[in-house]
Amino acid sequence: MNKREARVRRARKTRARIATQRANRLVVSRSNCHIYAQIIAPEGDKVLTSASTLEGEMRESAKNGGNRAAATLIGKRIAEKAKALGIETVAFDRSGYKYHGRVKALAEGAREGGLKF
User: Fold this and answer.
1) In angstroms, how far is the first alpha carbon of the chain from the final one?
2) Among 36, 51, 94, 105, which is disulfide-ready with 68 (CB 3.0 to 4.6 Å)?
3) Could you tell me the CATH number of the domain that includes residue 73?
4) In what order do the strands lie in the sheet with 91-93?
C-alpha cells in the first residue's frame, strides 16, 4: 500500500462515520501550492460553498498559497461564507490527512470565524 492509498483508506473510514451524523461536511484538500475547503450537504451530492487559495482576493492577500498563513485565511473565509448561508455546525473531514500543519491551521481559522465542529 502506498501513501495515497493509505490516505484514501483513512478518509473512507472518516466519511463513513460522518455519514451517520447527517451533518454538513467541511472537506479539506491540499496540494503543495494550494489549499481548498468545501462545505458539502449531508447527502453528499451538493457543494454548498467553497474557498481556496486560487480565488482572486485570496491570491492578493496570501502571496504563497501553500503555507499555514494562507490556510488560516481560507478557514476564516469558508466560515464567513458558511455563516452567510446560515450554517453554524459542520463535521470536519480532513480527507485522511494528519491533523497537523496546514490542515490544523485551516481548522483553527474556521473555528475563529465561528464554525463549530
Assistant:
1) 31
2) 105
3) 3.30.420.100
4) 47-52, 35-40, 25-30, 91-93
Contact present, 70 and 53 (Cβ < 8 Å):
yes
Nearest CA to 34 among 11, 15, 57, 51?
51
In this prediction the pTM is 0.91
What is the rounded CA–CA span in Å between residue 5 and residue 43?
A: 24
Residues in the chain, overall count: 117
What residues in the chain have per-residue pLDDT under 70? none
Tell me which residue of 50, 32, 31, 33 sits closest to 41, measured CA to CA: 50
Distance, in Å, from the CA atom of 49 to the CA atom of 13, rounded to the nearest integer, reads 24
Number of domains making up the chain: 1
Is the distance from CB of 60 to CB of 38 less than 8 angstroms?
Answer: no
Domain range for residue 28?
3-113
What's the CA gap between 67 and 24, in Å, rounded?
Answer: 26
